[in-house]
Design brief:
The protein is mainly α and 364 residues long. The protein is built from ten helices and three strands; from the N terminus they run ααββααααααααβ. It has helices spanning 2-47, 58-89, 114-125, 134-154, 171-216, 224-234, 244-268, 273-290, 292-303, 322-331, and strands at residues 98-101, 107-111, 344-345. It has a three-stranded antiparallel β-sheet with strand order 1-2-3, with no helix packed on it. Helix 2 (58-89) crosses helix 3, helix 4 runs antiparallel to helix 5 (171-216) and helix 7 (244-268) runs antiparallel to helix 9 (292-303).
């Protein structure tokens, strides 16, 4: 009897210890959630209009202004390369390829790299001609950046608060914090990106078509207001949102898959804040490379069906929809046009539209 009583007492003690452990764990989760919510409430009260930081804070305002100016400067400086890449995506190759070798040493017909392509644009239209469509692109980027954050804030999707101090978190706290940040960031980023793309799409369409005029030397999209009038008159509201769906698939797919992959690896393998940041960059780069064909499809669908020569036969097929465009580009191995900026080999499956501007030399 004494043995049974002692055994029962041991079981009761173990059960109490387990209950105490789970109660402490739940209390720890509750405290962390309260800390997150408290931090968010402080952010909300300090922001006044829902920004992540108080707009009355001079330091915050300077940081936001500097970030915006830096984005404008980078977009402007790299725009000639973006111009060349856009023409490559729609299949325009005015310079004949030459025999050469790929990055891995294979003998192939090689097309000019993006810098040589940009140099060709400059030789035809001059220096300022390399920035055709920049004004529409900057307007779209500004509206996307501003209203994307505003809509997310109004819907209550805020950034997770930054943890202050250098105290090392326990394993359970670190995993819980990682999960909370993943969910909050993913919801906010999906809203920010989808809102930004929809709002900026009309200006993105105008910018792409301004660049595509280089192919047929047209003067249809001469300015922002003239372009709006042209699209409204010829295509209606739908024309402003040409190529929207594949662009959403590419961008939102990159956010969703890249963020999820980063979270799963961070929760199981990768430790440390800097390592996780590097992993996040690598994950999004890898996913964006896989989804790049949808970017090409979006660009082609923006030009396709317009009054531009670049978007009609014989330079471009008339696609039924973006799925038809993707299928035909993939069948001819041209769904990754522009993905390589330096070692650009001629696709092995060559269509009639691919070699219409310059004869291909023979390989010897």
């Amino acid at each position: 009897m004494d043995y049974q009583a002692e055994h029962m007492q041991v079981l009761i003690d173990q059960e109490r210890e387990m209950n105490a452990y789970w109660q402490a764990d739940r209390e720890q989760d509750r405290r962390f959630d309260e800390e997150v919510q408290s931090s968010l409430r402080r952010v909300w009260r300090g922001s006044g209009n829902g920004a992540a930081q108080g707009e009355d804070d001079p330091e915050w305002q300077i940081t936001q202004d500097m970030q915006f100016l830096l984005r404008v400067a980078c977009t402007t400086a790299l725009y000639p390369l973006e111009y060349a890449k856009t023409l490559i995506q729609i299949g325009y190759e005015p310079i004949a390829p030459r025999p050469g070798r790929t990055l891995f040493g294979e003998r192939r017909l090689m097309l000019p790299n993006v810098f040589q392509y940009a140099g060709y644009i400059k030789s035809v239209d001059g220096f300022f001609g390399c920035f055709r469509g920049l004004s529409a692109r900057l307007v779209g980027n500004f509206l996307s950046s501003y209203y994307g954050g505003v809509v997310a804030d109004r819907l209550g999707y805020r950034e997770p608060p930054k943890r202050k101090g250098t105290r090392r978190l326990s394993y359970s706290d670190d995993r819980h914090k990682l999960k909370v940040e993943f969910v909050m960031n993913l919801k906010r980023n999906l809203v920010v990106h989808s809102t930004g793309i929809v709002i900026s799409q009309p200006f993105y369409v105008i910018s792409i078509r301004m660049m595509a005029q280089f192919v047929g030397r047209e003067r249809i999209y001469t300015g922002l207001f003239a372009s709006i009038k042209e699209i409204w008159k010829t295509e209606g509201v739908a024309g402003f949102f040409s190529g929207l769906i594949p662009r959403l698939v590419c961008d939102l797919g990159c956010v969703l898959i890249g963020s999820t992959l980063t979270y799963l690896l961070s929760a199981t393998i990768v430790e440390g804040e800097s390592s996780r940041n590097n992993l996040n960059t690598l994950s999004h780069f890898t996913v964006s490379s896989l989804l790049y064909p949808y970017h090409v499809v979006s660009t082609c669908m923006i030009v396709n069906g317009s009054r531009l020569k670049a978007g009609n036969l014989p330079l471009m097929e008339n696609y039924v929809n973006w799925k038809d465009c993707y299928a035909k580009l993939r069948s001819t191995n041209e769904h990754k046009r522009g993905s390589s900026l330096f070692f650009r080999a001629v696709p092995k499956a060559i269509t009639k539209a691919s070699n219409i501007f310059a004869p291909y030399p023979e390989m010897k």
